[in-house]
# Entry
Amino acid sequence: MNINRKIIVRSVAVSALCILLCAATVLAAESGKNRESETDDLTVFLDTLGKKIANFKTLKTDFIQEKKMAMFKDKLVLKGRIYLQKPNRIAWHVDSPLRYSVLITDKLIRQWDEDTNQVQEISLTKNPIFQNVLNQLTVWFSGEYGSLLDTNTVRMVKRNPLMIEFTPRENNIAKKVIRSITITFREDQKYLQQILIQEVNGDVTTIHFMNTILDAPLDSKSFEVKGHV
Amino acid sequence: MFDKYFLLFYQFAHHHKKWILGLVFLITVAAGVRLLYTRYEGNIDLMLPPDKDIMRSMDFLRDSSLSDKMIVSLALTDPDRTKKDLFIAADQLAASLTPPLFTKVISGFSVTDVMEEFSILRYAPQVLGEQDLAIIDSQINEKTVSQKMRGIYRQSLRPESIFMSTLSRVDPLGIKLLLLDKLRALPASMGYDVDVEDGHFISRDGRHAMLIIQTPVPMMDSQRSKDLITALQAHLKDLPGFVAADIICGHLHTVSNERVIKRDIKVASIIASVVFLLLFLMVFRDARVLLVFVIPLIAVVWALIIASAIESKLSYLVIGFGTAIAGISVDYGLLVYIAMKRGADVSQTIKLAKLVFIDAITTIFSFIVLYFSLIRGYHQLALFSILCLIFCLFLSLFVLPLTLSWKRYALVLDPTIGDRFKKIYWPTKLTVGIWSLLTVMFFILSFWVKFESDVKKLDGSSPEVLRAEQIFHDVWGGKANQAIFVVTGRSLEEAMEVNDEVFREAAKIIKNGDFTSLALFWPSEKLRRENINRWDRFWRQGKEKKLKELIRGTSSAYGFSDHAFTPFFEGMYAHGNETTRSSELIAQLQERFVVNKNGEYRIMSFFPDEKQEVISLAALTETYPGTFIVSGKSLSASISSFTTQEVKILAPLALIFNVVLTWLFFRNWKETLLALVPLITGIVWLIGIMSLFNMPLNVVNIIAGIITTGVIVDYGLGITYEYRYNLRIGTVIAVSLSAGANVIGAGALLFAKHPALYSTGIAMVICMVTGYLSSIIVIPSLCSIMESSKQKVPRT
# Structure
């Protein structure tokens, strides 16, 4: 009798273990599938979002940039304007604390500041990391997020307001300096509200966008760097 | 004595006709089969002077890492394709190139790795010297530090601050620029205009990528070079349609030179053979004349086998001369054939044999002269040619008559053949006058002849190879030649220590940073330790404290934190006492400068290959034993200087031999001088004509000219002999046909694509044509004038 009982208990235990293992496997598979499907969903979502956001030819927006850097006692706060003309022209004008302007194209950047009062041109082909960072800026501003998926892993942090985190992959040259970039979208999801850049060294940069006008009329003066106020 | 032995062998041959013919046939067949397994040499070393400096330079270039590299330049041919497509194609090609033929493929390097590698606090203490610290010292003042702080603040406001802020914290003074300056010289040492994008080498126009491939195949190994090129071309076929590729490497030159020479040998042989056949058949209308043509071919085959056995490997260039030799040696068979066709009797046959023998001896002696040269290739040429001539002589005198004496076919059909030549009337005094005038004119012109000393002009690489190199230099730059200063040592450290000292001295001699050395960015361990000690002393003796105070005083205006630059001060002495081993990047860069062969380390430094620079640095090789300079221009100059010295010995020797042999034949100065008319004409007119048409003399055509003197002196010998003794054995037509055959043999080289063979053809054709014309026009006229003078002087 005792032997039979032992056999029955053992059988039940083994069966329960098997069931648990199977369940775990199924759950893991399900969760994997969920992750996969979540990633797939995100890809589709980003594509759709990108199409929505990318549906403009020009852009004009004000910004406030806050930089928390270990090198400085207090936060650095920059205020200025951004002008964007697709496919590949961005002008970034800083009005305070120091007047500074930079024009970014796919091949070079041209910059000026009131301190030196010199216009400096830098070829991006000779500065690959710089080029990578500026390419990313261009992508964020222009809305073509699908292209970021090759070099970044993507995670949806929040749905409302929509917040997506991009983490550079191993093959991304920016991985050496950037830990993650979190983008928060406006409620109407037509454009960005904020970009949060967390650097590997612990520094944090936050850019808030306000008074954004899509398809704004722009003239050539908007893309001049020298002495622009 | 000659008559006795000649008759002995002649009669022996006639009594054992079948045996002799059978033996010749068997030996020829055996030699022909052996020829299929004979290896030939494509290496040019054979043709180089055995000068210590030249051999050392050639050995160095062969053993250095320079000759085992290949470059592939990839070009985008579709304007719609981008750099990304080009880089993908480059990466796929690089991945497909695997050992054993391709040991390493470099398509670029990672700039982030470079920036990491050159961490200031890791490398600056080791690499920066006294001068660099003086520059840093000059920056430690309030004004400059304030400017630096302002600059860092300004930069922090810009997008690039994302990756610059960390760098700024460990390098407030911008010491990194001093390190990068040292690296900037490196592309200059390559002489190329290269950018790096996305980890790939890219040209300035952005449409070309470069792969540098390392191979264990030595450049001079023609067989393995062929396999290497074939394998690489097979991989290049897999490139997408919008990418075109050019290969740049020394192996291509080796393969191309060999291919060109082989082609030239084939073409020249075919042309010479066809023209010989047509000429002989048209003139004689007798198929047996083909036997005359076959004799030199048999002689060449026998000579090749024996010469290869003695020399182990014959040079392709030596074989190329074979076609010309075949033309020279057809003379003997021709003389014998024509004499037999005219029905020469025994005494005439013996006189003919003497003439043919002396003809062969003068030609053989012109090759013996080459043994006085120190160049091994010339010895090979001499051996091969002498063997050829001896076999031709033997076969013409003793074997050819056996084949012509078949009773079934009458040989003598026209005993007057060739007499028409003798009947042509030349106005004697006018002829001699014009000849004298032209000879004087060409003699004067000869003083303006140019000499081409650049041996690179004798490179026989095909136009495609040269065009690819031209395109490569147009895209990537690098046309300026670089000379190499080599330091040797039993260990790497030993060599590097000497290299440091050499660099210190050379930098004073060669300005503008044109002397690129490993010492510039990675000195010896001894010097690195000295630099570290100097760095530590520099900062500990007050500079650190001063800089801290200045930063504290100037940085607060910009809101810098108290610890903004702590990483720099904390890391200042973090290097410890151990010198850092070279990183991967430095190891890669070192490869360009360091060669380790057979336990000896050689460190190369590069500088412009200009005469003044080479001379200035040559003094350093005296100061530092075990160092030497490798310069392409100097190498060319040394080779031609050596060859010029040799020609100064060989040319007079050849002349003396010809004069002595001619005198020995005639035992009479008047007839000797008559017989030498074609020799004088050939040499003087050759140099004069080259000068007139602005064609330079070079090491190859001078030697060809020397060899040809032995041929054209035969024309003079034959014609003088015929006219003086009224032989009537058809010498004039024999000499004419012989000259024709010689010119055809040498003229076939005018179709050669290889510059060395073409140059030989030009010299030999000019020499032979002028020598021949003077022998049939001027010698009879001179003989005539001498006869008339004799008749005018009354005998007492």
